[in-house]
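Please, structure for the following, as tokens.
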Amino acid sequence: MIKITYTSREPPMLLIQGHSGYSTEGTDIVCAAVSTLFLTLVNSLHEMANDLVSVRNEPGDGSIIWRSRVSETGKILLEGCLIGLKSIAETYPGNVQFETA
């Protein structure tokens, strides 16, 4: 199961841990979807928002921790990613859990 935890207080934090177990490694569409949204957010924050963040991206263990206030662009990028992650969790509830802390 992939556990996604979003801490909304300022500055926010997004944690993604685990594996979905939907399919075998290399063919798991749920893991691929979550990974794609996560990496798109990381790259977009660096290229479009210039937000100061600490990123961890290891298999089954990812996080984004803001080191300063989130920019307006960063808020929009983050909200878009959260919408996608929540949608995946709703579609695959046996494989992805989303919680707001």
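The radius of gyration is 13 Å. The chain has a mean pLDDT of 96.
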